[in-house]
Design brief:
Length: about 140
């Protein structure tokens, strides 16, 4: 009787591990619809198309986004840590902020969008994490 009970517990443990592994695999794969977990890869766009920047692992990705004038860029905070997006005078860690654009503090999953109407290079940073080089980036508008 004791052997059968031990075997049953062993099978139950194996089944539990298999279910947990399958759940983890499915979560990692996600769905092809990209259900809001991570923005699609940033791409250069023609006038009126969107560009996306992910804020994740205390970094802006991509570090440089090139878009056409008229493009709306959306930043998505994919970190559990709050961030903001504030325009700055340069990509330097000691750069002053400017008034071109500024988000409020973004919690995980929140977004901020800005439409770039004029050609130029626009630098920005997360002022909450201003001392981290990866929290400084740029949008190049052609």
């Amino acid at each position: 009787m004791k052997i059968r009970l031990t075997q049953a517990r062993g099978r139950l443990l194996v089944a539990t591990v298999a279910v947990v592994a399958l759940a983890a695999l499915l979560a990692a794969c996600g769905s092809s619809s990209n259900a809001g977990n991570t923005p699609p890869p940033a791409a250069s766009g023609s006038s009126g198309t969107a560009g996306n920047v992910s804020i994740q692992n205390l970094a802006f990705t991509p570090k440089t986004l090139t878009v056409s004038a008229g493009t709306t860029v959306t930043w998505t905070n994919n970190d559990a840590t709050p961030h903001n997006v504030i325009s700055s005078a340069s990509i330097s860690l000691n750069s002053a902020t400017t008034s071109t654009f500024a988000s409020s503090t973004l919690s995980q999953g929140q977004t901020f969008s800005f439409t770039f109407t004029k050609k130029g290079v626009y630098f920005y940073e997360c002022t909450i994490h201003k001392t981290l080089p990866a929290m400084h980036a740029e949008v190049v508008v052609k």
